[in-house]
Every structure is written in structure tokens, then in C-alpha cells.
Amino acid sequence: MTQDATTFSTDRLKALTDGVIAIVITLLVLELTVPVVAEISGSEGLWPELRSLWRETLGYAVSFFLVGLLWLYHHNVFRYIQRADGTLLTLNVFFLFAVSITPFSSALVTANPDERLAAIIYGSSVFLAAASNAAMFAYASRKRRLVDPRLQERFIRRENRSATAILVVLAGGAGLGYVGSTYTYAVLGLAITYYWVMTALNREGVSAARRGEHVVDPVEGDGGVGH
Fold first, then answer.
1. What pTM, to 2 d.p., does this model score?
2. Strand pairing partners for 210?
3. How many CA atoms lie less than 13 Å away from 69 in the CB half-sphere?
4. What confidence tens digit (pLDDT) does each residue in 115-130 have?
């Protein structure tokens, strides 16, 4: 696709995003405390100390798969976006901002599992990341300004509708933190589990579309690009 003076390659944008996400995942594991039995007064051994870390371990696991899911969402979006401009770059910076908060919000929730504000902060950071991703695809696909011009309109509509639906769910989950932190964790847990199951079943994108489905109109002599 020919680039004009206001657009540029997405290569550096994707490289930066991958690098930031790799760092975030690394920082998550650093939140796990390594027990030193010899330095713990009255310790009954390593296994009891490890068992006492179940909350930190659970928080790490959930946040790890959450960040992995956000990376997967970003990866799928940029399968269709072929060029970038200043607006798309700005939206991607908001995405990176939301993702980079994850180690802090995860540690906050782990240390304060019953605090409603901690749950709201955690849920809000997830919502912002998902919203930034959804906004990037919506912006890039509007009039096919930055995507493959052959991208099917029905696919664009379905992805945008599905993105809106999941954003409503995530916003509701964050908002439920005002009622009780458990509700936020339950909504996020169900959303994360659902999309990882869909991925395992070879479905992709926020709409969990089947792989092999044509998302661009075939051109003469070409079978089209599969999803």
C-alpha cells in the first residue's frame, strides 16, 4: 500500500509495543516474594511459606494471562492495520500507558484484595487498554484509512460491535468495584478465561472469529487473505 506524507510504517510502533509488554511481564514476576526460611522467625519450613504466597501467586497468574491477552488483541488488530499516522500513534501510547500500570495495579490488588478502590483501579486499567485497542481498529478501519482497502465491511462492523460489547462488560466490571471488589475480579476472570478458551479453539480477534474465514475480498488470481 502506498504511503503518503502523513503516514508511516507500523514496524517501530509494533516493536516498541512488544518491548514494553515484555518488560511489563517481567516486572510482574518481580512482585513475587522469595521466602528465606532461615531468616523467618518461627518458620515451619519452605512449603508453609510458599503456601502463604497463594494470593501473590494468583495475582501474578491472572495479570500474566491478562497482559498476554492484551498483547494478543493488539497483535490481531495490527494484522489488518497496514499504516500508521499521528492519531494512531497517540492511541497506541494510551494503550502502552494502560498496560504499564498493570504491575502496580496487580500489586495493589494483591496487597489489598478487599479494597474496592484497588479493584476499581485494576478494572479501569484493563478497560483503558482494551478501549485504546478498540479505538485503534475503529479509527484505522473508518473508510479503510489505514487498513487493507479490501477488508470486508461486514468484518469491520462485526469487530467494532464486538469491541463495544466487551468494553461495556469491562466498564461494568470496573464499576461493580463500588459494590464489592469480588464482582470486579469475577467479571475480569470470566472475560480472560473466555478469550483464552476461544484462542485455544483457533478463534481470533475480539469477535472470536474462526481462523480461515476470509476477511478481505478476494482479487482476481488470489484466494484472499484468511483470518
1. 0.82
2. 203
3. 27
4. 999 999 999 999 999 9
